Structures are given as C-alpha cells and as structure tokens.
C-alpha cells in the first residue's frame, strides 16, 4: 500500500518535471526559430519541429514531435486509499467505482423525475412539450468516450445497461428537468452541420450564380459546378449524362439529391469525374451534387441517408 | 512458512557471529605462535589500502546550462547529427504500441492499475533515441543561420544584368534551357550515374523555321516534341560525362535545324498515304466531285432539269466557290475532326453543291 | 433484349384493356397540310401546341395527316397513324424490336414526325431526279430514332409509288449468315444465296403491287446456265421469281435486279429508294473465318451481296435516292474503347467515306422538349404511363432527367411508371 | 482449519484462533473483529457441517379457517382490497368477523347463509 | 497444521493485520483509557443498539414472511416458526434476538474503524443499499460479483488492498437459485458476515445470521435503517471516547 501511495506521489512529481521541461523547451525552440517565446503556440511548435527534424516516416505518429506532457503521457488514476488503507470511494470494491456511481445517481435521477411527474399529474399539469429534449439532435457517447470520461474500462454489457438506463431517463416525459445531467453523456450533432456550411456563390461573366464542389467515393473523384436558374442540363466529362452513365441505376444515383432537394430541372450541372468504376463515379457525383446545390437549398444534414460516406454503398 | 524463514535467517546471523568469534580467537592464537607464511596467501605486514580515485560527479548535459536567450547559431554552427545533450528541446520520437496479450475481463483492472503499462504508449524521449539520429535535421539552417549566411555571402554577389528583369525577357534572350543535376551521395563512389544526364529544352517558335522546315523538324524529333506546348525536349545521357552530353545536345540541335531546312529529292514523291493531313485535291473526294459535276453539266443541257447554278456559270466547275467551300468542309472534317458543327457545315456545302436553290 | 421485352408483354394486356374504354378520348387536331418553305419555318420556329398533361384529352400529340407525303415541319413532334398494311409492307423489319409489342399494346401503330425525316423529305422534294441519286446519311447515338426515321422515309417514298429496296440491318450479312459458298461469277467473292433470296423476297413483298403494275422489263439477256436463261424483255418480276426459285443463283439475280432497277430508274420509269440500316457494316471485318488461316476473317467487301449493294449506293444512276444510317452497333467494338463516336466519318472509315462522299449527313438528335412532351403525352394517352406521379410535371422532369430525352431510354424509363 | 481457505471446516473464529495459537499470526496482528467476536460470540456457531433438523415445521391453522374455506368455495372472488390502508379488511375477513358475531348470538339455522344475508344487508356485495 | 496453511491467504491476513496494527494499538489505548470507566467488550450493550429493534416493527415490516415451502433450505428449519398454507413463517422471537446480536457486533466493528461492505444482489433494492452504505461512510458492492474480488484482490485491484472487516448481506442469494459468491469468499478470507437469511437461504457460512424476509422493500428499508444506526452509533461512540481521552 505504501508503495502504491509513493508511486502515485512520484508520478505527480514526474509530471511536474516534464511540464516544466516542456515550458523551457518551448522557449528554447522559439529562440532557435527567432520567434517571440511568449506567443509561441503548439501549432508553431509543430511547424518548427517539422522543419528542424523532417521525417518521411509513413506513420505520422512515429515522426518527431514536441507535445505537452499531458498529451503524451497517459492519464493515471490518483491514489485510491488513505493512509489507513480505507478506500476513498464507497463503490471501490466494485472495481469500477465511477461507473457504478454514475449508474446509482442515474437511478435516483429517474426516481426524482417519476416523483415530479406524479406531483404534476396530481396538480393536473402536463409535461411541457416545448422544453422536451430533441433526441435526434444528439447521440449517446460511444463506449470509448464513456470510458475516457470515467477513466474506467467497461464491458459491453455494462455499456448496454448504461444506455438502457439513460434511454429510460431521456424518454421520460419531463426529462428536460434533468437536461444538464443527461447532456453530459450525449454528443450534440448540430456541431457537425455547422461545420459543413453552405459555400459562397460565385458569379460568372454573365452574372449567373454557381457553386463549385469536389467529392470522392471509393477511388472516384468528382468536380462539380452547379449553376442555379438552369433548365436541368447536365454535362459530365463534356458529354451527356446518358453517354457517361449508360446504366439507369447510376443516373438515378445522380438524380437522387436533386430530387431530394427539389431542384430537378432547375439547376444546371457541369461535372468532371475521374477514376473508379461507373457506380463509384455516380456515387461521387451524387455526394457532390448534394452538398452545395444552390443557394435556394437549405443544409441537408437532417436526413440520415445523406451522410457523406466514402465506402458504404448508398443502398447498402 | 514466513516464520520459518525468519528462524532460518536468525540462525544464519547467529552462525556468522559465531564464526567471527572463532576467527578472532584464531587470530589471537596467531600472535602467540610463529606464523606459517605462505606467500601470496596470507597477509604479511600492514596492508596498504589501495587509493581509489574519487568518482567525479557526472556533469549534467549541456542543455541544462543553456540560457533561454542564447545564440543558437554558435551552439549548432554546421550540419551535424542530432545530439540529445546539445538540443534543449524535449523532443520525442517513435511509436510504442500497447499490446494486451490474453486480454480478458479479469485483466481489465490491469488496464488502469498495473505498473507494467506505465511506460506503454509513450513515445521515447530524445535520450539515446536512435530514430532522431537517423533522420536529417535542419538545426543548422534556422532563420538566424540563414540571415548570417546571407550577410556573409553578400559581398560576393554581383548585380543582376539589366534587361533580364522578367522571366519572359530571359526566355526571349536565352531560348535554350539546359537542365542538369548534381548529386551528393554518401557511398563508396563519388559518381552518380544520374549526374551525366542533360536535358535541353527549347520552344520551336523561337527557331526560325518555315512550314516545310518545321514539319520536317517535327518529324525528325518524333515524340520529343510536345505539340500542345510547342516545346522540344532533348534528354541526353549517352555519353559518360555531363560536358560531353551537353556538347552533343547543342550539336544535335544545330544539326536538326540545318537538316530541316534541306529539301531532298525524294520529298516530291510523297503519296496520299504519306500525307500527314487530308488534302482534298489528292483524294477520292475530288474524283467523285468531278464525276458528279460532269454528269450535272451534261444533264443541264435539258432545260427542265434543275441544276445548281454554279455548274453552268463556270467552265472549270472544281474552281467554283461551292465546290471549294465543300472541299474546305471535307478537309475540315478530316483534319480537325468531326463534330456536329463540322458535319452541319459539310451538309450545307453538299446541299449547295448538289441541290438547286 | 429478352429481359427488356418481358415487362412490356406483361404491360400490354392491361394497356389494351384500358384503351378500349378510353378510345373516345383520343383527340386529334388537324395541323394543316401542304408544303411550306422549309428554311423559313426552320428560322422562325414553330409555336408549341397547347399541352397540359394533368387534364386528359387536351394534349395534342397526334396528327390526322396519315399520308407521309403531306408531312411538313408543321407536323413536327406529332404522331401519325401508320396503317397496318403499311407496317406489313415497309416496316415489318428494321425497327427496334421493342416497338412491335408496343404497337400491339397500343392497339395501333404510330410514328412520330421528326425533324430529320422532314428535312430529308424537303430535300427529296427539291431534288431533281435526272441528276445522280443523292445519298442521305442518318447518324445519331444509339436509341435516337435513326431506324424510325428511315421507316418514316420509306413510308414517305412508298406512298409516292417508289420502289423501295430495304436492308434492315446490314451487319446481319456478315455475322449470322448460315450458308456461304464461293462465287461462281467472280472469283474470290463469297455468295450468300439464302440472304440474297431473302432480300429478293423482301423486294417482292415490299413492292409487289407496284412492280406488277409497272411491268418492268429486263434490258438484256441473262444466261444462268445452259437451260436457264432470262431473255431480254422479260418481266422483272419473273427475274425475281427465278432468283427465289433457284436460290443457288439468288446472289447473281440480286446483282441483275439491282442493275435493272438502276437502269429503269435512270430512264425515268420508276423511282427507287435504297434504304440500308447500319451501312457502316459494309466496311467492316466479317465474322467468317478464312479456310487457309484461322486467324483471318473475310472482309465485308468480299461478300457478293455487299458488292451489289455498293453498286446501288454508287451515284452513277439517276431517278432515286439512297438513305442510309450509320450505327455504332454495326461496327465491331473494341472493349471499353473510349474513342467511340457515332459520327459518320468515324464509323465509315476512310474507305467508306470516300465511297459515299458526297452525301448529306442528317443528324438524328434526341427528343427536343416539344417532342419529349409529345411522346409522354402519347404514352399517357395510350395509358402506357399508369403511375399517378407520371402524369405530373415533376414526374416528367424526372423521366426526362433519367432518359436524357433519348427516345429509347425514355421508353425504357417510362416502362417503370 | 486456520490459515487455510477451506471455509467449510470450523468457523472464521476458530480458524483465526488456531492461527494465533500456532503462532502463525501474532497476537497484535489479529483481525479487529476477533476480540468482538470473542466477547459476543454468535448464538449458533456458524459451522458448515451441522445437523439438519428432521422435524418439519408445524402447520399454522386457526379455527376460523373453516369459515374461510367455506367462503372461498362459495364465493371465489376475494373482492377489492385497498392495500395502502392497513385497516382495510378483505371481504373474507369481514365475513369471518360477521360469522363469529352471528355465531355468538344464534345457534340455530344456517349461520353461513345468515352471515351472507347480513353482509348483503350492509351493502357488501359478495 | 502449519504445513496445511495456504501461504497466500496467510500473507493476506498478515498484511491486513499489519495494516491494522496501528489501529489496534490505537484502540487498545482507547481501551486502556476507558478501562478505568468501562470496557466496551465487557459491556453487554455498549452502544445501546439492542433497544433499536422492536418485534412489532419487524412484524409490521413483514420480516416474518418467508418463501414457499418448496424453496425452503433445510438449515433454516430452526428459525422457522411454522408453515401457513404453504408459506414459511419465520420465528420473529429468534430474529429479534439475532438482530440484536448482529447490531451489537456491527457497532463494535464500526467502533474499531473496520471496513464494512454492504452486499446485495436484489435488484429492486440495490439503490437503497448503496445509498445507505454511502450515508454511513461505508462501502457497498451490489453489482455483478467478479470471482476473486476478495480472494485475489491484489491482482484484481492492481495493488495490495485492505479487505473489508465485515460483510453485511441484505440478501445472500445472487440469483434465485445461487448463493452469492461473496459468502464463500468472505468465509475464506476470514471476514465475518452479517446476513439477512430468508427461508430459502443457506445460513451455515454466515457468522451472524438474521432470519428475515429479504425481498420486501419495507423490510429491507428497516434492516438498512437498523444497520445504519448501529454503524453510526459505533462511530459516534468512537469519537466520544477519543475526545474523552
């Protein structure tokens, strides 16, 4: 036990040393590169290291780097016992105290929700539909994410029970009362749709607006220009759609996004596709015709079918 | 069992004590009696303790004593292999894979607790890290180094010649571009076979060639000529030395130029198959046209016949405008390539030629 | 091809049933007749007939003008009804195989009047037939309607009492012929008596009443064998009958008939239309292996029939016209050759081009907006399109997108609606 | 016994005692519960190898069980019973109470039916 | 006898004991100081826990209700009062006495700063048990039991670990058919156990068995209340005694 405690202490000291060494190294590097040491960011460090010690190793992880010790050295748990050997945590003997603490808390959260609902029913009130948590806007944390959060390794059954319990909580009519608790374990999807913002419109000499996009599926690549205020004219590699895609399935692939966004016959498409086979070309085009389309179209991230996918078939 | 160990340990200590006592008693006995001296076996006289050199303290690596605002160019003046002690950066390189053998439920605890996993997954530091020594480094070419180099080189620089300010001007005055490479190889030989190669580039438009000469030039150089850019590229590597290759290249260029201006006797014997372009007057098309116009001319004798006007106007029908335009359309179709536009043009010309307006 | 036909047959039953109830719905509008200045019309553009797909019965997609000789640019994009006898006579072969079940399903045979056909008709009207025969070349990508245009033109000429000689698909001659014998007439040529006899019988069926009324005579004496002789002044039909009875001599009879027809046409007795589909197949390698070397094939030029047909395609005669099509399907395709094209110079090759030059190439494009809408109007009218969405504007847009308005593709896409 | 992991031999207490007695465990190192258990031993020694009682437990029966049995045969429905209210009696219990009440007062006639009638009169539907 | 010792278990015992040696010396000093007044071990009810239980409470909380006859464990016969229409009724007289004994023991262990581990696998009452354990500053393990958690603890926890000094089972069954593995593991590791044993449970390895209904929430709540009070009383007394000294 003593050895255990000493080890924990030694680790803390070791980390302290590493961090101070990193800070000094950072100032040295700034000096070497002739930069201002106070405003030398991690990005600058990476750039400088890449310049000073270039490595062509395929695995980027294996190249030289200078990172903050917290990013390099895996986190370790703090000491778990006091000097008498009494564990700090009431669930210590379960070996996964954080996880079971969470499960225990979740049970009482659910119970409190039930009680609250009973009270509301007795008062004749109804759950506020406006406040309801939109389940589609976020997803549960994945198992590795939960493990990272709790610093404990979970079995599949345990993760399943976690999901079951939390699903019961979120599906409760007044789950919004515990939104902050629930949302700790959910990842919001809206961030994703924010990233893929609609590209700006470009105007050609005639003043006609268009957008440009690139896309890929399997080994195919597609470069697309979409003109708004069109008549549904499609050119692929300088030829007709029919010449490029003799199979109707491929043409349907290309059509699906236009159909979905109701722009069929309203935009002109000029595309260049290369590499791959006919179906992957159509797939590459489909994704591209999709993502920007024209300014008339809202972002299309709501539909799960339109998630960009380079490998899995659209119908698969 | 542990207590048994204790006991045995205790007895051991006791035994050793007893042994010491016995020895001391023996030594007492030695003083009383004359000693049997076996040289090299037992002690004679006072033993002089061997003087050991005091261990010098290990000097901390140089990086520890470096001031943060030092002049790095003095620390690392020239190219050199990575030295961990002279580089004051906590660099890490390498990738260590964490590998759990027989990973099972019972080992899950180990994942976060075991000592063995303590160093797992951490890239090794710079101390004794061979990987850092293998890769090249540019610690001798930092911005400060370059500034110093430039300052030192400045006095040897001359002014840029006037009139060659832009690339276009350079191209104009020096149309021939010669590319060669030098190689420094760390191996048993100083020579690198690639160093002898010389590449000469020139744009054909910068040579003074008429259409025949240009045609011949292009035929002579074959695929070394890029029709899209109009550039000639000569790769020369048949001689062992770069100089020889360069001289040969220049010779070759002038020989090509001279040769392309010559017109040989056999060049007049060119047939249709030798033509690189479709020439209407040499082809079947002309015969067909001639035949057809002759028939039309004959038919024109009958006044009810609707013959295109041009047939009657001119004596030499083939020289008339519709036929010439038709000929141009056919040539266009063959030489430029057919598309809807050229076919449309061809159609119009044929209609003009065959149908009365 | 069979897989394509199957759903059609399935659909034909229900389509027929529906047609009986809706036959009174067929509205047709008189679009006017008479010749109009071709160029003028081309320039000013023609107003679209009123079309509203949602309201049935109002769509104008057909014309009452069933006489093709009266067709002008004003009928462009409209369907006209072809009499069953005309189908039997001129279009029994040569159209896309899917179109025949479609005719049965629709309970009528209609062809669309399209611009390339009108263009050639105008040329034919304008041409002087004392001048060498003009050769027209239809070209366009697969499924664009070259054969239908050719059929329309045959109907056009046939209705004006021309003698029609039709080769429905030239490459058939050098791919699927069962019987091949060395020619006795000229060494080094290959005779295909069965194919020649077939051509003769087609000539008879196509022009049967006409040939009898014209009562054409032969210009010279033909000696087939010691006993079999065709005298000068015999009826041409007799010569043809002889070829049909003595199949052995059919290739030579074919040559004689062609010669006779050319002479008659030149002398103004009759007008002759030479219609050959897939003419570029005549400058191709055949699939027939030479006996001396297994790796060498006969060239189509070595076939007697091809040689005779080439005689016909020559412009050394007057009083007729040739209409040919060039088709990608008629050449032997290299696998995945990206350089394929449907243009005549590419498909004919230098030799073929030189032989046929000068000809009038006429492009058969995909449907224009007007034609495509007219086509779908017609399909809707015939209850071919049954899905409610197929009747809406959005459904049409989708069909147009998927088919790129290519007639064959549009038909294939419309099968699914 | 002591020190071994054979939990079925002796008890926890006797095994530690054995260890202490043999000296394998020093007296100072004894478990902290040892003194407590020595002072307050469990009333039954928690031995694994103990004898089974052969005698089955008695049946618990009451005289009024007869009435209950009759009631159950006549009216199978137990009725509605408010479990939250500890004072709420089941219909069966009400019947038994009534039966006894009637039994005390009268000895003639069919008491069972009389009870049923009495309860009906009180508005309790059987 | 010494030869038959399992060296590993002995090592555990030694480690545990060495860990506690300091505590023991502390407690012994307490003892010494209080000897002048009173020795807790000599006092019959030093923590005044015996009056916590009342038979009527046990009855009202349905502690007497056992399982059906078919599931009866023969070793529970002495604690069974009788059989009412196929259901075993536990003898509350005995339960009352045994509960007092157990509470006294628990309080003493808590007084000596022992680690008390609450164990239950009765799914409905797990949160209650965990909550009670947390409230009295002790430990609970109500989740799936990994074999060797007590017997192989240094490997399982990655370090030498102090094992609990007392296990309190609110239900000795893991599933309805199987006994909780911790019962045997605790007995192996010299850890005494206090357990609520229903008529279907095996009381033999339990040091201080309490015959009682282990399924009804109100009964479990009652047990937890009593255990908690006993532990808190023990701890309180420890503070008082330390202050007196």
TrEMBL record, chain A:
Keywords: Ribonucleoprotein, Ribosomal protein. One of its GO terms (cellular component) is mitochondrial small ribosomal subunit. The keyword Ribonucleoprotein applies. GO terms for biological process: translation. GO terms for molecular function: RNA binding; structural constituent of ribosome. It comes from the Eukaryota. Pfam families: Ribosomal_S9. Residues 276-296 are annotated as: Disordered. The keyword Ribosomal protein applies. Belongs to the universal ribosomal protein uS9 family. This is 30S ribosomal protein S9. It comes from Capitella teleta (Polychaete worm).
UniProtKB/TrEMBL annotation, chain B:
Residues 188-263 form the Small ribosomal subunit protein mS35 mitochondrial conserved domain. InterPro entries: Ribosomal_mS35_mit, Ribosomal_mS35_mt. Pfam families: MRP-S28. Signal peptide: none annotated. It comes from the Eukaryota. One of its GO terms (cellular component) is mitochondrial small ribosomal subunit. One of its GO terms (biological process) is mitochondrial translation. GO terms for molecular function: structural constituent of ribosome. This is Small ribosomal subunit protein mS35 mitochondrial conserved domain-containing protein. It comes from Capitella teleta (Polychaete worm).
From TrEMBL, chain C:
One of its GO terms (biological process) is apoptotic process. Keywords: Mitochondrion, Ribonucleoprotein, Ribosomal protein, Transit peptide. InterPro entries: Ribosomal_mS29, Ribosomal_mS29_met. One of its GO terms (cellular component) is mitochondrial small ribosomal subunit. It is found in: Mitochondrion. It comes from the Eukaryota. GO terms for molecular function: structural constituent of ribosome. Belongs to the mitochondrion-specific ribosomal protein mS29 family. This is Small ribosomal subunit protein mS29. It comes from Capitella teleta. The lineage of its organism: Eukaryota, Metazoa, Spiralia, Lophotrochozoa, Annelida.
Automatic annotation (TrEMBL), chain D:
The keyword Ribonucleoprotein applies. This is Small ribosomal subunit protein mS23. CDD domains: At1g26750. GO terms for biological process: translation. Its main location: mitochondrion. InterPro entries: mS23_dom, mS23_dom_met, Ribosomal_mS23_met. Pfam families: MRP-S23. One of its GO terms (cellular component) is ribosome. The keyword Ribonucleoprotein applies. It comes from Capitella teleta (Polychaete worm). Keywords: Mitochondrion, Ribonucleoprotein, Ribosomal protein. Belongs to the mitochondrion-specific ribosomal protein mS23 family. GO terms for molecular function: structural constituent of ribosome. Residues 2-123 form the Small ribosomal subunit protein mS23 conserved domain. It is found in: Mitochondrion.
């Amino acid at each position: 036990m003593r050895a255990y405690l000493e080890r924990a202490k030694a680790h803390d000291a070791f980390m302290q040393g590493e961090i101070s060494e990193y800070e000094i190294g950072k100032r040295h590097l700034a000096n070497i590169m002739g930069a201002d040491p106070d405003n030398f960011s991690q990005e600058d460090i990476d750039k400088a290291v890449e310049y000073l010690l270039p490595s062509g190793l395929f695995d980027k992880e294996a190249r030289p780097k200078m990172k903050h010790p917290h990013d390099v050295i895996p986190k370790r748990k703090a000491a778990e016992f006091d000097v008498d050997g009494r564990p700090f945590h009431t669930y210590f003997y379960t070996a996964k105290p954080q996880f079971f603490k969470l499960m225990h808390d979740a049970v009482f959260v659910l119970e409190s929700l039930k009680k609250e609902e009973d009270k509301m029913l007795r008062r004749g009130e109804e759950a506020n539909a406006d406040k309801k948590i939109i389940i589609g806007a976020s997803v549960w944390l994945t198992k590795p994410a939960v493990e990272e959060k709790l610093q404990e390794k979970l079995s599949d059954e345990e993760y399943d029970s976690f999901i079951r319990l939390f699903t019961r909580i979120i599906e409760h009519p007044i789950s919004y009362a515990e939104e902050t608790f629930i949302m700790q374990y959910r990842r919001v999807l809206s961030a994703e749709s924010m990233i893929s913002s609609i590209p700006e419109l470009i105007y050609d000499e005639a003043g006609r607006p268009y957008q440009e996009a690139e896309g890929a599926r399997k080994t195919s690549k597609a470069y697309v220009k979409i003109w708004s205020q069109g008549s549904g004219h499609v050119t692929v590699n300088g030829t007709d759609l029919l010449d490029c895609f003799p199979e109707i399935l491929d043409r349907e692939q290309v059509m699906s996004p236009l159909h979905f966004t109701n722009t069929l016959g309203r935009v002109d498409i000029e595309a260049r596709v290369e590499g791959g086979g006919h179906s992957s070309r159509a797939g590459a085009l489909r994704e591209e015709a999709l993502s920007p389309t024209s300014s008339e179209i809202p972002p299309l991230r709501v539909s799960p079918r339109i998630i960009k996918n380079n490998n899995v078939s659209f119908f698969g | 069992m542990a207590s048994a160990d204790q006991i045995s340990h205790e007895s051991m200590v006791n035994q050793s004590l007893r042994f010491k006592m016995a020895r001391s008693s023996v030594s007492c006995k030695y003083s009383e009696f004359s000693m049997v001296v076996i040289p090299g076996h037992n002690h004679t006289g006072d033993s002089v303790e061997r003087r050991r050199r005091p261990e010098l303290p290990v000097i901390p690596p140089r990086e520890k004593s470096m001031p943060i605002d030092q002049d790095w160019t003095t620390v690392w003046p020239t190219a050199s292999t990575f030295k961990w002690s002279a580089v004051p950066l906590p660099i890490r390189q390498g990738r260590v894979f964490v590998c759990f053998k027989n990973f099972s439920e019972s080992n899950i605890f180990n994942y976060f607790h075991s000592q063995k996993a303590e160093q797992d997954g951490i890239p090794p530091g710079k101390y004794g890290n061979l990987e850092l020594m293998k890769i090249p480094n540019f610690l001798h070419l930092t911005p400060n180094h370059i500034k110093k180099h430039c300052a030192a080189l400045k006095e040897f620089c001359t002014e840029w010649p006037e009139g060659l300010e832009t690339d276009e001007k350079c191209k104009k005055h020096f149309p021939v571009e010669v590319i060669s490479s030098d190689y420094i190889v760390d191996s048993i030989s100083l020579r690198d076979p690639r160093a002898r190669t010389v590449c000469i580039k020139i744009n054909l438009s910068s040579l003074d060639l008429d259409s025949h000469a240009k045609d011949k030039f292009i035929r002579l150089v074959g695929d070394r000529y890029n029709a899209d850019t109009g550039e000639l590229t000569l790769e020369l590597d048949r001689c062992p030395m770069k100089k020889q290759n360069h001289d040969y290249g220049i010779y070759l260029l002038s020989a090509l130029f001279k040769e392309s201006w010559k017109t040989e006797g056999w060049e007049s014997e060119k047939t249709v198959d030798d033509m690189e372009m479709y020439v209407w007057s040499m082809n079947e098309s002309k015969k067909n046209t001639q035949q057809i116009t002759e028939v039309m001319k004959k038919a024109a004798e009958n006044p009810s016949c609707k013959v295109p006007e041009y047939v009657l106007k001119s004596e030499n029908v083939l020289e008339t405008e519709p036929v010439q335009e038709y000929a141009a359309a056919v040539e266009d179709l063959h030489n430029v390539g057919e598309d809807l536009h050229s076919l449309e043009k061809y159609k119009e010309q044929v209609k003009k030629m065959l149908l009365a307006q | 091809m069979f897989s394509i036909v199957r759903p059609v047959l399935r659909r034909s039953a229900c389509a027929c049933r529906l047609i009986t109830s809706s036959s009174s719905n067929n509205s047709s509008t008189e679009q006017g007749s008479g010749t109009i200045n071709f160029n003028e019309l081309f320039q000013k553009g023609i107003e679209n007939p009123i079309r509203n797909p949602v309201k049935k019965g109002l769509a104008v997609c057909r014309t009452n003008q069933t006489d093709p000789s009266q067709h002008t640019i004003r009928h462009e994009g409209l369907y006209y009804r072809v009499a069953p006898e005309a189908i039997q006579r001129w279009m029994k072969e040569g159209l896309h195989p899917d179109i025949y079940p479609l005719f049965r399903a629709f309970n009528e045979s209609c062809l669309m009047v399209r611009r390339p056909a009108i263009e050639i008709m105008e040329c034919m009207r304008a041409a002087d037939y004392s001048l060498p025969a003009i050769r027209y070349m239809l070209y366009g990508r697969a499924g664009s309607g070259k054969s239908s245009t050719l059929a329309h033109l045959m109907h056009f000429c046939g209705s004006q009492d021309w003698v029609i000689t039709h080769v429905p698909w030239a490459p058939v001659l050098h791919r699927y012929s069962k019987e091949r014998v060395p020619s006795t007439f000229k060494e080094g040529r290959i005779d295909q008596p069965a194919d020649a006899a077939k051509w003769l019988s087609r000539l008879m069926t196509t022009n049967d009443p006409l040939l009898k009324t014209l009562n054409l005579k032969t210009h010279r004496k033909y000696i087939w064998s010691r006993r079999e002789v065709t005298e000068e002044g015999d009826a041409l039909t007799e010569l043809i009958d002889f070829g049909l009875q003595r199949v052995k001599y059919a290739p030579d009879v074919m040559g004689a008939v062609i010669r006779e027809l050319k002479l008659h046409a030149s002398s103004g007795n009759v007008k002759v239309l030479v219609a050959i589909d897939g003419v570029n197949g005549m400058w191709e390698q055949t699939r027939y292996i030479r006996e001396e070397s297994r790796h060498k094939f006969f060239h189509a030029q070595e076939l007697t029939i091809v040689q005779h047909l080439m005689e016909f395609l020559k412009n050394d005669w007057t009083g007729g016209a040739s209409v040919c099509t060039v088709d990608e399907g008629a050449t032997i395709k290299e696998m995945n050759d990206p350089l394929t094209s449907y243009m005549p110079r590419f498909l004919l090759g230098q030799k073929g081009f030189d032989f046929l030059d000068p000809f009038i190439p006429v492009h058969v494009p995909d449907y224009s907006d007007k034609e495509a809408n007219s086509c779908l109007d017609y399909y809707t009218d015939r209850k071919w399109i049954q899905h409610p969405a197929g009747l809406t504007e959005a459904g049409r847009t989708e069909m147009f997108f998927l088919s790129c308005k290519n007639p064959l593709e549009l038909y294939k896409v419309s099968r699914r609606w | 016994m002591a020190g071994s992991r054979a939990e079925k031999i002796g008890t926890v207490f006797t095994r530690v005692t054995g260890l202490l007695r043999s000296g394998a465990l020093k007296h100072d190192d004894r478990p902290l519960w040892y003194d407590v258990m020595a002072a307050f031993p469990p009333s039954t020694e928690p031995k694994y190898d103990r004898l089974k009682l052969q005698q089955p437990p008695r049946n618990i029966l009451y005289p009024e069980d007869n009435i209950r049995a009759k009631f159950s045969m006549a009216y199978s429905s137990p009725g509605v019973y408010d479990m939250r209210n500890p004072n709420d009696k089941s219909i069966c219990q009400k019947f038994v109470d009534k039966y006894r009440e009637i039994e005390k007062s009268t000895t003639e006639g069919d008491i069972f039916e009389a009870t049923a009638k009495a309860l009906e009169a009180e508005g309790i539907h059987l | 006898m010494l030869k038959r010792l399992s060296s590993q278990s002995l090592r555990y015992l030694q480690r545990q004991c060495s860990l506690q040696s300091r505590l023991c010396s502390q407690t012994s000093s307490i003892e010494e100081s209080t000897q002048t007044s009173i020795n807790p071990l000599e006092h019959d009810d030093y923590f005044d826990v015996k009056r916590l239980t009342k038979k009527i409470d046990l009855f009202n909380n349905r502690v007497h209700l056992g399982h059906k006859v078919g599931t009866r464990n023969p070793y529970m016969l002495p604690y069974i009062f009788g059989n009412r229409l196929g259901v075993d009724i536990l003898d509350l007289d005995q339960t009352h006495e045994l509960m007092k004994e157990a509470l006294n023991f628990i309080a003493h262990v808590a007084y000596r700063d022992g680690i008390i581990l609450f164990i239950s696998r009765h799914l409905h009452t797990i949160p209650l048990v965990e909550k009670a354990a947390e409230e009295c500053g002790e430990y609970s393990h109500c989740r799936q039991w990994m074999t060797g958690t007590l017997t192989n603890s240094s490997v399982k926890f990655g370090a030498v670990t102090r094992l609990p000094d007392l296990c309190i089972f609110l239900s000795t069954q893991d599933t309805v058919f199987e006994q909780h593995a911790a019962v045997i593991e605790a007995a192996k590791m010299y850890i005494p156990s206090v357990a609520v044993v229903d008529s279907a449970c095996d009381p033999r390895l339990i040091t201080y068995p309490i015959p009682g209904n282990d399924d009804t929430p109100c009964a479990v709540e009652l047990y937890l209340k009593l255990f908690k009070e006993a532990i808190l009383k023990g701890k309180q007394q420890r503070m008082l005694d330390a202050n007196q000294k």
